[in-house]
Every structure is written in C-alpha cells, then in structure tokens.
Amino acid sequence: MTDDRIKKFVIPNLPYLMLVWFFGKCGEAYRTSPSKDALRKLMDCIGSLGDTMSNPMPSFNPFDLLIGLVGAAAVYSPNTPFKKQSDFLIRLLLT
Predict the structure, then answer these.
(1) What is the pTM of this model?
(2) How many whole angstroms separate alpha carbon 55 and alpha carbon 15?
(3) Half-sphere exposure of residue 74, counting CA atoms within 13 Å on the CB side?
C-alpha cells in the first residue's frame, strides 16, 4: 500500500527533480568557474559544464540549490512559452 503512495508522489514530480538537478549543476559550474567578470564566468561555465556533469551527485551549496529551484520554476511556470517544449522533452526522456 505504501509503495503505491510513493509511486503516485514520485512519478509526477520526477520532471521537477530532474530540472532542479540540471539547473543546480549549471549553478555549480557557474560558482566554481575561476573568472571574476560575469560574462567570462558564463563562458567558463559553458566550458566546464561537462566536468561538472561528470559527478552525478547534486551539490547542496545554497547558491546551487537556489539556481536549481529558480530554473525549474521558470521552466514550469504556467505562463512560460517553454511549457509545451519542456513537457515534450520530459515525456521524451521518460519513455
């Protein structure tokens, strides 16, 4: 009985968790880039994203968690133009 409850809670929220993880990893790449300038930091972030993604464990740094939550909320807000595309991508990933 409890397995059914867990499945009913986890399965619908899995796309949110995946987005929080992805945007958290982007925040970690931004935070660990050595540059001081914001534009240079973004460029280094893109370059070091592969190194950051090599470790599948999420970062629990408050900055990374904040970026993860804000990014997932931005993608899943009801008025976003990315709602249809994100739903399609999530369905594609889960099948």
Answers:
(1) 0.73
(2) 20
(3) 8
- Mapping DSSP onto H, E and C, the string for the chain reads CHHHHHHHHHHHHHHHHHHHHHHHHHHHHHHHCCCCCHHHHHHHHHHHHHHHHCCCCCCCCHHHHHHHHHHHHHHHCCCCCCHHHHHHHHHHHHC
Instruction: Give the type of residue at 8.
Output: K
pLDDT tens-digit series, residues 10-60: 777 888 888 899 999 999 999 998 888 888 988 888 888 888 889 999 989
The dihedral built from the CA positions of residue 78, 61, 38 and 56, taken in this order, carries a sign that is negative
Please, what's the b/e burial string for 8-37 (b: 16 or more CB within 10 A of its CB; e: otherwise)?
Answer: eeeeeeebeeebbbbbbbbbbbbebbeeee
Quote the radius of gyration of the chain (alpha carbons, Å): 15
